[in-house]
Structures are given as C-alpha cells and as structure tokens.
Design a protein that fits this description.
By secondary structure, the protein is of the alpha+beta class. Strands 5-6-1-2-3-4-10-9-8-7 form a 10-stranded antiparallel beta sheet. Strands 17, 18, 19, 20 and 21 form a 5-stranded antiparallel beta sheet that branches. A 4-stranded antiparallel beta sheet has the order 23-24-22-25. Strand 1 and strand 2 form a beta hairpin. Helix 4 runs antiparallel to helix 5. The chain is elongated and about 85 Å long. The relative contact order is 0.09.
C-alpha cells in the first residue's frame, strides 16, 4: 500500500498476482473500521519493480508526485483458489498481514467492467477490526519512517514513468540496507566482474590494484577499497554533484603517477551516467560533460580512474548563474597550516559581521575552502567581485601572509586568497571527494569551531576515517544545499 500525492492524494492498494501488481486507487484510504466502506478504482497493473518504490515521480511524468510505502506485508485468498479469476469476477476476498492493515477485507466491483472500474473496499468484522481507525492517523512509511513531506523534500529514489521497468527506478541516495547489499556484492567479486548495485549493473576491473600509496604505516589503498568508499559515501556526496557538469581528475595508474583532467563524457559510459551538451563549446573544446545524478554513476566515476571529483559551481540549466560564491585559501610555499587557520578565522569573523553563512572544508591537501551558497541570480562577475572585496578586506589585516600576485613565483611564498575561482567552468574539489595523494585523503567539511582544534589538519581525513565521522556528526556541509541567501553590498 503506497500513499501517493499526485494531482490528488490517494492510497494505492497493490496485490502481487502472477508476477505483476494488481492495483486499486483508494482516495480516502483503507480502514480497519468495519462500519465504513471505501471507494476504490481498479487501475492498470503495475510492474513488480514498483512494489517497494518510495520517492518522487518527476514533474511532467505520469503520476508526478511523491510516494511513500505506507504499508507492506503478505496476503492470501479467503475465497476460491485463483486471484486473477476473482478479480475478473469483481469479487475478491483476502486476508492481509501487514504492519498496519490486518484481517479480512473484501473488494467488490460496483457496476460494469471498464476503465477506472469502481469497487468497494471493506474490512470484515473480525478480531483485527477497529472502529474509528483512519489511515491518515498513521502517516509514516513502514519502509523508512518518513512522511510524504519528508520524502518530497529529500527524495532518495526517483521513478521515471515511461521507462522500462527494470531501469525506471533511479537510486539518487541509497538507503543503508541498499549500501550494505552493494558492498556485500562487491566483496563477492574476484579481481573483476559485474557489480550489481543500486538497481544498476557496472563492470569493474583490477579490483586489487593499488591506487593510493599507504602513509603513516598503513597499507596502500586498492581500487576495491576506493569503490567501497564511493558506494558508501554516495548518499551524502551525490547531492553536491547532481545537475552539474563534472570535471574529472583521472589517475588510472594510481595517485603516485601524474594525472590529467578529463572533461568529455566518454561514449562508452553506461547510459545511467547523465550528460550535458555545452551549447557554447567551440571547436576542440569539451562538447559533452558527464553529470552524476545517481549513486551508481558516481561509482562509475571511480571505476573510470577518476580519483577526484570537481563539479561546476553552476547548474546545467543556468550555467552562467553560480549557486556558490567560493573562497579558496591557497597556501604558498612559506604558508604554514597555522597561517591558513588565521586566514580562515578572519573570514569566519567577516562573514558573521555581514550576516552571511558560509561552509568551510579542508581540501585534503594543504588548504581550506569556504563555500557560500547564494540564491541564483548573480553572475560569476558579481560573485567574483563580492569575494574579492571580502578577501581583500581580510587580507589587509594580515598583509604579511597574503600576496595578490597571479604567478606563483611572484608571491614570495605567501598565500593567495583566490577569488578568481568564481568563474564558469572553474571548479573546486567536491565535498567528500578523495584526493590523489598517499593515504587517500578526503576534502572533508568541518564546523567553524574546528578551526580552533589543534588536532585539525588539511589532509587529516581519509576514505578510511571520514565515513565514521559522517555517522557520528552527520553531513556538516548539508546547509550549503538548503541555504538560500543574497549577498549583501559590501561597503
């Protein structure tokens, strides 16, 4: 039984019969009250793949809206021995054993057969009957414990109406059980094979290959471990990549080798890896970028040898309107980590002073970045100018630490507050992306308070430690997805 908020809110009763879901739409929902009758409309059979779908059907699609698994369980016939015959006859008596719905129910057709046949759904008087029982008093999903509002606000699954049933469900952010199943499937593979994960199939190779040298006495990180991390972090990481062109930093032979930028989506990428054709690309420039809108696509990125993920700061629907203003604290040769922290604290104070919320993260290398979410509207020129004013005000406080020279050699080893990153197709490494360095460090979000923690290091979090940090502290960057703010004028 699914609770479906489409053009109208209704409950969908689905009984598995002969490998399909025989379905009725019940506008007021089922009840355990035997004194009440509920109208039900017999609708088309649904594919078995839809059985436990919970998520969102996109706008413009048939049935667009949000869906929760309101109840689930087993059923059996109470009369006759063939369910399909009973449905054809318009007289179906069943016993439900669900988490909410229990006991004997009757479904009886009213009137003639045809499109949207009208039936009655009633609960029999038995030991499971409860007078006054209403479905809207029990709104939460039995699958995830969420309400429809919560699913609509943060959908982890999407159903593409009209697609083949086997590929219609897109896993944007896998649930914990789905991640565990995917990791178990990977563990069963040898050096290579076909990995079934999140409703997709992905060919994986060279799983025992060492991709990151070890550090601090730890063993090297293999490709299998990188893929495990990518699958496990995907529910948290994909929202920062979805809907954005992606620049990949590839090191097919490992982080110890010289890598290269890869921007063109390869023609051999699986169909579930999204794409965006850049209409402004000149001859010889990248014409089609990969877009990671689901978890399996991010895992493909790692299988493809991309050790770092660098999304655009604008979305593909409005490529000239950034959703973030970026502060990049780029240390020079003489810049200590303590100097970087001084600059970060000054930016923290400056943002507090002007009433703007920013979200810091360590880069996984030597530096630190601050992402400032903005309501779409300003151009890159405008966000770049705003960050330049902010950072030059900060830099004026500690001129001995900062250089504004463009060339590295001309900076005298000082740090650069790089406001020039606020430009189209200029990217900063994504939250939770690995970095191509020994130990597989991660660009990890931090809290502002951690700037005062003497144990904080720019490359202190790795793919072996950051998942536990997420479990303990949650996603410290999540506010960057939900905050909508205008940048104030800086005097």
């Amino acid at each position: 039984m699914q609770l479906h908020r489409a053009s109208s809110t209704h409950f969908d009763l689905r009984l598995e019969v002969d490998g399909v879901l025989v379905s009725w739409a019940v506008p007021k929902g089922p009840t355990l009250d035997p004194t009440k009758r509920r109208t039900a409309f017999h609708v088309e059979d649904h594919p078995i793949e839809y059985f436990h779908f919970e998520g969102v059907i996109p706008k413009g699609s048939y049935g667009a809206g949000d869906v929760t698994v309101w109840d689930t369980g087993t059923w059996k016939l109470r009369r006759g021995d063939d369910a399909r015959t009973a449905v054809e006859a318009g007289d179906l008596h069943v016993e439900l054993s669900g988490e909410k719905l229990r006991g004997r129910f009757a479904l009886v057709r009213r009137g003639e057969k045809g499109d949207r046949e009208q039936w009655l759904l009633v609960h029999k008087r038995d030991e499971d009957a409860v007078e006054g029982w209403e479905p809207h008093d029990h709104p939460r999903s039995v699958l995830t414990g969420r309400t429809n509002d919560e699913v609509a606000a943060d959908a982890d699954h999407v159903w593409l109406s009209g697609a083949e049933a086997a590929s219609a469900e897109v896993v944007v952010a896998p649930r914990e059980q789905e991640v565990e199943e995917a990791l178990a499937a990977l563990d069963e593979l040898g050096r290579q094979g076909t990995w079934h994960l999140f409703g997709r199939e992905l060919k994986v190779t060279n799983l025992d290959k060492e991709l990151f040298p070890g550090r601090d006495g730890e063993p090297p990180v293999t490709k299998r471990e990188l893929l495990r991390y990518t699958a496990a972090v995907s529910p948290t990481a994909v929202p920062y990549l979805a809907g954005r062109a992606l620049n990949l930093r590839r090191h097919p032979n490992g982080a110890q080798t010289k890598g290269f930028w890869h921007k063109q989506r390869p023609v051999h990428a699986p169909p579930f890896v999204g794409s965006w054709g850049n209409p402004e690309a000149d001859e010889g420039e990248t014409s089609t970028y990969a877009v990671v809108d689901e978890a399996a696509a991010l895992v493909w990125v790692s299988q493809f040898g991309a050790l770092e993920w660098h999304p655009w700061t604008s979305r593909t629907d409005r490529p000239h309107q950034p959703t973030y203003a970026l502060v990049d604290l780029d240390p020079g040769e003489r810049t200590s980590w303590g100097d970087v922290l001084v600059l970060a604290r000054l930016h923290r104070t400056a943002l507090e002073h002007v009433g703007v919320e920013g979200f810091p993260k360590v880069t996984g290398r030597r530096g630190l970045q601050i992402w400032i979410p903005v309501r779409r509207g300003p151009t890159f020129d405008e966000t770049r100018g705003w960050v330049e004013t902010l950072s030059k005000t900060v830099g004026a406080v500690v001129p001995e630490l900062v250089s504004w020279k463009w060339e590295v050699k001309a900076r005298g080893g000082k740090a650069r507050l790089d406001y020039t990153q606020n430009a189209i197709n200029r990217t900063l490494v994504a939250p939770y992306s690995p970095r191509a360095a020994p130990g597989a460090p991660v660009s990890a979000p931090i809290s502002w308070d951690e700037l005062d923690d003497p144990a904080l290091r720019p490359d202190g979090f790795t793919i072996r430690t950051v998942l536990e940090r997420i479990r303990e502290r949650g996603d410290l960057f999540r506010g960057a997805l939900t905050t909508s703010q205008r940048l104030p004028t800086l005097g």
